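Hey, I was hoping to borrow your eyes for a little while. I'm sending you its amino acid sequence along with the backbone structure tokens. Take your time with it, there's no hurry, and the full record follows here.
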Amino acid sequence: SDTTIDFYLHTPTVGYSISGTITLEGATYYSGTIVLLNDSLADTTDASGEYEFSELDAGTYEFVAFHDGYETFDTSVTITDGDVDISTELASIPAEVGPPTDVDASDSEFADIVHITWSPPGEYTMLAYDDGDLMNAGYFPLPTDQINKVGVLYSVSSPATIVKIEVGYHMEDIGKCIVSTWDGIAPDEELGSEYTATLSTEGFFTFNFTDDDITVDSSFFVSFNTALPRDTIYPVSDSVYTDAYDDFTYIYLPSYDAWSTFTDATTWSGFVWLIRVYVQTDTGIVMLEPDGTIHNTTDPFGSELERIIDTETTTLTGYNVYRAEESFDSPDSPYVSLIYSAGPDENQYFDTSVDPDVEYYYGVTAVYDDTLESALSNVDVGDAIDFRPGADILVLDWDKGQNLADGGTSDEVTAITNMINDMVAGADTMDIYISEQDEYLQHFILDNYRWVFVIAGNENPYMPFYFYSDTVQFVNFLTSGTGLFIEGSEVAYYLDNYFPNLLNDFGASFVDDGYDSANVHYLTAVEPSFFDETDPFDVNYAYNTVADFTADEIAPITGAEAILNSQTDDPAPVGDGTRVIYYNNGTCRVVFSSIYFGSIDAGTTEPETRNYVFSKVLDSLGLTTTGINEKPAKPKTPILLSNTPNPFNSSTAIRFTLPNDDNIRIEILDVSGKVISVVSDGKFGAGTHEVIWNGKDSSGKNIPSGIYTCRLTTSNGTYATRMTLIK
């Protein structure tokens, strides 16, 4: 009988392949080339350069092959009905098209911004430390007020005599080389030094020590600096991609009066100075490496400083900045994006398309003749923070960590915020945000606050502006905010030099920089109605203390008013002696001050008290205060107030306040710490007291001019202040 058979016909499955060989120009082994298909399939070549993708469907594929140091190959390939062979040789990138160096991405430095910087491709050198062509050498301009010496730590295992020392320099300043013993943390005894103005055509200063007979038998230190104090040194340096020399490469930091390894000071690793030290040993003249080994070279005097970049055949025309959310070693990696193409004169980029608290990886390439792209630079990781939260009151702590209240014995930011909390009605229900120490203004959006208090120190930079938008923020706040308080002895000087229009927007103009150490004995309320008074009154100030250093003299612009002026003589001001200005622009009220309110004397009776004066400042800014008692709150601890006058010629009044009855002792000490006079020793009641010191020691003899310490000892502790005697 008939049989029915059901069946289906299927298109046969055919797997195709793309394979081939990728060789590298000038190389013998070809492993390590990455081959990609459609940015999703990847293979790596073996030593023969072979790769293969199998079981591929018919269709069109994007083919990319790349290898660090070689030009990338990319093409489109279509599979129809058979396997495909793609074989090619990657051309090497010429040595003269080196990558940028020292790529650095900011780490939690800015809000919603990562700042990327890089150095241009340097003059390539033959480094004695490596005996090969290193591609990251350049020179460091080191301003002498920041870093004025560089050095390298060496050692020998057996006695040797120093013959010659060379250091790579970029400019022909007169150099000085010093050889010293090493005490474990810094150079100690100087063994020899030499000046020279001879800069060789190879870019080396040469210091010849053959006549000095300097013998070393263990660790020794070689340092370099300019002979003239205002010169800038330009030592040649290199990044060697190894931390082997981190413990031997040093810089001197004048601001700390100390030597530091370059890595400790900058966090950069793999950094060396181009320094060569030649010593005479039993086997002849050899060149030392910093770790004590002898340099392996047939020429004991090393190779010349060699410039490899050929500027006649290649021209740097720009840079490409790449970013990814994981580390990468090639801009052709599938997860890497080109985020910016910079011009040849640019060396930074602000990446604003970032999310807070996300790590991003950045690398930069150099572009030559508009088409030829270098290998990738080092890759650095950076991230951004989120903007700080809004609040009713923002306090910007820009005082450099200085103690500027109570004549330099306590923190001004704390003093200001305590007075706000104590005086402002409803302060306990208000949000007050205090910045971190010297935090960038860029971390804040000023429109998110009603009142802003700025406390600036008297050390440069006086206001940590970083962007032009920082000044714009203040300008905008003056049209939207309620009140702005700014105090700092050098703020007017700073703004007048860099942002004069902003100073005028604050209602002030600059008159004089003030004396270095002594400006304000007392302040007079020249506009008594501002303080709800009918007559002028005075408040004492911490004269000749850190709070009084270089206190600017200012003047109000039209529409503003002076509210506190300093005394008219001893010392006399240049103008009216204005130190505090009030300005209402119709929207925002501004108090601009060159003195620190926390260093106004506490006082005992209104209106001549710190609290009373500052309460009226708060009222003027639109912060309603609760009113101040006739006398300031009883102190919780003893207070040693500054002596008046200071400096003094024959006698001075020492004032102090006690919270309770107590036995106290007041002593005068010289600079060595020796007690030279006991001014008072006995029991005093609670309150403010004054004793007089006549400038004599315990035997009744006049003491010489100088700086002395006044020490108050109580049952609660010991307190001290400085005083200056001038004969």
About this structure: The chain has five domains: 16-90, 108-118+316-385, 125-288, 393-620, 639-725. Confidence is low (pLDDT under 50) at residues 123-137, 297-312, 629-634.
